[in-house]
Amino acid sequence: MTQRTKTGTRLPAVVAWLLMMAVIIGSSPASAELLIRITEGADSAIPVAVVPFSESGNMPSGDKVSSIVRDDLTMSGEFRPLAPEKMLSLPSEGDEVYFRDWRLLGQRYVLVGQLTRQGDRVEARYELFDVNREQRIMGATASSSVNSTRSLAHHISDKVYEAITGVPGAFSTKLAYVTLQRSAGTSMYRLQVSDVDGKRARVRLESDEPILSPTWSPDGKKLAYVSFETGKPAIYIHELATGDRTRIADFPGLNSAPAFSKDGRSLLMTLSKDGNAEIYKMDIQSRSLKRLTNHWSIDTEPAWDHTGEGFFFTSDRSGGPQIYHKPTENAAPRRITFGSRYNARPRPGNDGEYVYYVHQRGSSFHIARTNLETQEETILTRTGSDESPSVSPNGRMLIYATKQGGDSVLTVIAADGGAAYSLPASEGDVRDPAWSPIVR
Amino acid sequence: MKVTAHHKLFAMVLSLGLIAGCSSIGETTEDGAYDSDVSAVDQDGGSTVYGGDDEGGVSSSEMTEEQRREAEARAERAEREAMRDITTFYFDFDTAEIKSEAREVLVAHARYLQANPNQDVRIEGHADERGTKEYNLALGERRANAIERFLIVNGASRGQTETISYGEEKPAVMGSSESAWAQNRRVELVFQ
């Protein structure tokens, strides 16, 4: 259904009703779950044994906590978990761990644990051992409701990851993305949120007009995105817990590329209401606008830098799209990329060392990064139609959209290149991934 | 689609040329039947019957000249009419430059809009799938704006036009080939 209305024209009630029906703010559960395909692991991956946890009491059916932890660690590309059938013993507490056995199996770390059912909750007690040093390096308990042992497993993965690497894990974070199914002249866009392994996907918005550019608020409770549901692009803020939505920007022309500020109070966005695509900052409460770029060229795709004071953006002021950085809102922009004639859609790493973006090389589009200090540019992907990079909140991984056999899929790689897994949709395209912040 | 439109246009121009040829040696009555003929031609938009069987018709050179001009104008109008079948305009990668072959057709659209002030047009800008979605939204808008400016400069009024960019979201042709991309980098005029 396409809408051909101009601003100000009144829609007949029936049409208005149909329009509302075209946009379903959704709770259809797990309708289009992503699959997961682990394509490679890094050679330097650390061998780790995640021993199946002992269980007392009635446990929920479905994937075991320890196997989810194993999958998480594998996905990171930094670990190579041992298959349980190769284990010589299955200890569930420290006294039962014989380091000699694990050393024989070439393991660096061993995780053991017990799960106990307590009413409608499941409690996990778990311990992590360093095999070479024969030391217990972590012991903790955590619990979850019976229905969310997946969250419990991701939490344990985060703790294990942090204990070994010193960097917080990002397995409990979420992905927002858009799936697109086209059939016989109609399109169905679905904004979804899932775990980082693609599980527990839920549709949050459904429309036969485009949905684009989802982005997270810093508290992980809201998404901002662009939807064409009225026939024209507008920016919405969507409360995930309640499904409440606010149409925050609906100016003539473009309303696109929203990005929350660090304090969550303002949004960067691209508007063309003053003639061509420029970047503005909107105070969400008052809706007042401040214009941050002023050039006849296209300025778009803003992303705050790690300081929260400055921002990166794409501009074609040099003739083709390139990445620029403004260290403060009012500073002069500095050009960052020079390596090819098309560099766009910057996303900063979490510590200010790198900026990631889409880079054209020959006829291919890759994800690349530039070291902001040395200016050194590295191409990170081997696929060739790559888009929409989003860096994990711990800075260790990167998700992007690429093509596989004609369909768009999400692919996760280590932020320095390396290991990868992909998340194809069971049907159609999946695109525009946005990695949530870590919420404590 | 493009080819069909061109063929049609070519056929129209040919037939118009023929008509113009006829009229230059055409016979008309001296009593002003000429004028009524012209208005009849205008009314049924190009199907023409000249003269009648008055073999002794006199034609002054002045009238022939005028007649020729009229015929030319008619031909031009019909040609423009035919050109307006073309409503999709193509662009090169990452540009919003209107191709020279599109200009004449766009002038035809602009004149039509000028002559029909109640006619609105929606100018839809598109990009191919390469590059980034948000940049492509801006690029689609730049293309739509370029076409809008051209229409306005050539006679359309601002109130008649509306632009929207879909970026890479609504490809005309599915697929990831050079030919699909070329057909997707476009602006479409939708008359409402």
UniProtKB/TrEMBL annotation, chain A:
GO CC aspect terms: periplasmic space
Domain spans labelled TolB N-terminal: 35-136
Keywords attached to this entry: Cell cycle, Cell division, Periplasm, Signal
Main location class: periplasm
BP terms from Gene Ontology: cell division; protein import
Annotated localization: Periplasm
Family per record: Belongs to the TolB family.
Subunit organization: The Tol-Pal system is composed of five core proteins: the inner membrane proteins TolA, TolQ and TolR, the periplasmic protein TolB and the outer membrane protein Pal. They form a network linking the inner and outer membranes and the peptidoglycan layer.
Task performed by this protein: Part of the Tol-Pal system, which plays a role in outer membrane invagination during cell division and is important for maintaining outer membrane integrity.
Name of this chain's protein: Tol-Pal system protein TolB
TrEMBL record, chain B:
Cellular localisation: Cell outer membrane
Positions with biased composition (Basic and acidic residues): 65-79
SUPFAM superfamilies: OmpA-like
Presence of the UniProt keyword Cell cycle in the record: yes
Signal sequence, renumbered to the chain: 1-20
Membrane topology according to the record: Lipid-anchor
GO biological process, one term: cell division
InterPro entries: Bact_OuterMem_StrucFunc, OMP_bac, OmpA-like, OmpA-like_sf, Pal, Pal_lipo_C
Start and end residues of each OmpA-like domain: 78-192
GO cellular component: cell outer membrane
Physiological role: Part of the Tol-Pal system, which plays a role in outer membrane invagination during cell division and is important for maintaining outer membrane integrity.
Subunit structure: The Tol-Pal system is composed of five core proteins: the inner membrane proteins TolA, TolQ and TolR, the periplasmic protein TolB and the outer membrane protein Pal. They form a network linking the inner and outer membranes and the peptidoglycan layer.
Family of this protein: Belongs to the Pal lipoprotein family.
Name the record gives this protein: Peptidoglycan-associated lipoprotein
Source organism of this protein record: Marinobacter vulgaris
